[in-house]
Amino acid sequence: MESQIAELTAQVAALQSSAGVTNTGFAEVFYYLSIPLMIIIHAGFLAYEMGASRAKNVLSSGTKNLLAFAFMIPTFYFFGWWVYWGFPTGLTFSEGPNGISGAAYASAIAWGWGESAQYMGPNVADQASGVFFGAFALFAATTASIMSGSVIERIQTVGFVILAVILGSFAWVVAAAWGWHADGWLVTQFGVHDFGAAGLVH
User: Fold this and answer.
1) Which helix (H) or strand (E) holds 59?
2) Are 136 and 175 a contacting pair, CB within 8 Å?
3) Which of 70, 115, 119, 152 fits a 20 to 30 Å CA distance from 79?
4) What angle do CA 150, 132, 34 make, to 5 degrees?
5) Can you state the angle between helices 130-150 and 172-179, rounded to 10 degrees?
6) Residue 92 and residue 99: Cα distance in Å, rounded?
7) Phi, psi torsion values for 34, nearest 5 degrees
8) What is the mean pLDDT of residues 8-24?
């Protein structure tokens, strides 16, 4: 009887592991399909803003969109990704569900150098693979592009880049940490489910 229980326990553990891998695989396929669409969205933002600008400001509007993309990817890599992993329980350094502070956990896995390389490739154990980073970086750039559309012809380029970095690599990422992270306080306390970025990005 005990051997049967041990065998059944092992089978249940194997099934749970298999289900986790399958779920992660489906999520990664979803993001692999979404990333090209998000890049096309940026081409649409570029066309819209250049079309909505007066003739003398067309080049400036196009340049701002390209600069948003160029600045958001590296700034999100260097500190936006860290913010996402560091503050799911709020803007505190208190202990999180892992028994360490979110900031300590993020420092261990999400900085853009050192040990983070092992987490940026395909990694079905914790879903922190490069495809998730790519999708989140594009969401950060989308946040900057949405803001860009609201300030057409009304902001200088340097001011736009600074505001884009603040919104895309910090403000939006804090909201994502609270509403998308498995340990985010909106998820754990209120059961928030924001599929497709309908609430957090917009």
Assistant:
1) helix 58-75
2) no
3) 152
4) 60
5) 130
6) 14
7) -80, -35
8) 66
Q: Which of residues 41 and 105 earns the better pLDDT score?
A: 41
For residue 134, give the nearest of 64, 69, 58, 59 by alpha carbon: 69
Locus of tokens 């979803």: 30
pLDDT tens sequence across 91-126: 766 665 555 566 666 666 555 444 554 544 444 455
- Quickly count: other Cβ atoms within 10 Å of residue 50's Cβ: 18
Domain boundaries along the sequence of the chain: 32-197
Distance CA 168, CA 72 (A): 7
Q: Which two tokens stand for residue 4?
A: 């049967």
- Does residue 179 or residue 112 have the better pLDDT? 179
Q: Residue 201 has what DSSP assignment?
A: T
Task: Look at residue 173 and tell me whether its pLDDT is greater than 80.
Answer: yes
Going from the C-alpha of 130 to that of each of 115, 150, 161, 181, 197, the distances in angstroms are 14, 31, 25, 16, 19
The answer to whether 129 touches 109, Cβ cutoff 8 Å, is: no
Query: Residue holding tokens 């999180």?
Result: 96
Please give the torsion angle defined by the CA atoms of residues 103, 200, 97 and 118, in that order, rounded to the nearest 10 degrees.
-60
Find tokens 């594009």 and name the residue: 138
Question: At 17, which amino acid appears?
Answer: S
- Using the structure block, give the residue that is written with the tokens 């928030």: 192
